Amino acid sequence: MTASSGVRPVIFGEVLFDSFPDGSNVLGGAPFNVAWNLQRLGAEPLFVGAVGTDELGERVCAAMASAGLDLRGLQIVPYAPTGRVQVTLEVGEPCYDILPNQAYDRVDPGSLAAFLTQPLPMLYHGSLALRAEPSRSACNLLAGRADRRFVDVNLRPPWYQADSVLEMLRGADYVKLNRDELRELTRGTNDGNRVRDLIERAEIREAVVLTSGSEGAGIHTNAGDRFDAGAPAVTDLRDPVGAGDAFASVTILGILEAWPWETTLARALDFAARVCTLQGATTTDPSFYAAARVGWAD
């Protein structure tokens, strides 16, 4: 739970490793990154996902324990490997092969009963972990009990169809996506029209959060309000990987803490810019997160 709100978010989805040609494996996955950030920023999220009975699964458990993340929602499945994305280089540019039949596809809904006896004020999930059963049913079970649902769209070919994504978004309270994803899922001549199309077709209850990379982001509410802000300059850019997950993390925190939308947007953009100075999406250095929170109590 957050220090002041008393609300504990549930984060559902993939934990995986990016596997590089040199043999290195870097821990990540959008939901896992969000859970990690929220934990370090003072919330106490419950991460619900799955790993295999392999060395990479052991690494996930060790990393979660070291960060103080609750391990009770992490299932260990003996019949699928811990998630991996195979990264290759083509003409110097990284290409990603999201492997099928991974442990995060195998979250058992029958093992979630212990979490369904408690209030579920906020559920976060992405779209990748809903590509297969039984994880799709597990997420739907949690969504049916959640007071609020935050969906982080991550369109990863070939693991989605636009119609299925729109159906997944239906009735969500909050949806975050980037400009390219918005254009793929909606109709309209500009971003404002496309967001309104998404809100109406998917029956979004509260707000759509639209990110535009180095241009910044905007929050469009169901009531018709719009808040826009530019991205802060990054003076020591190292790696933009994880910026979107960082932005989502602070947006969720702002919702839980009932910050004004303008405040949430500014703080989320600032934290995303800070993460761009890291090598990777997260860090084990607690001072990084403490520095980001300076002034947030105001």
From TrEMBL:
Gene3D superfamilies: 3.40.1190.20. Its EC number is 2.7.1.4. GO terms for molecular function: ATP binding; fructokinase activity. The keyword Cytoplasm does not apply. The keyword Cell inner membrane does not apply. Residues 23-285 form the Carbohydrate kinase PfkB domain. Keywords: ATP-binding, Kinase, Nucleotide-binding, Transferase. InterPro entries: Carboh/pur_kinase_PfkB_CS (IPR002173), PfkB_Carbo_kinase (IPR050306), PfkB_dom (IPR011611), Ribokinase-like (IPR029056). Pfam families: PfkB. Belongs to the carbohydrate kinase PfkB family. This is Fructokinase. It comes from Thioalkalivibrio nitratireducens (strain DSM 14787 / UNIQEM 213 / ALEN2). The gene is scrK [H].
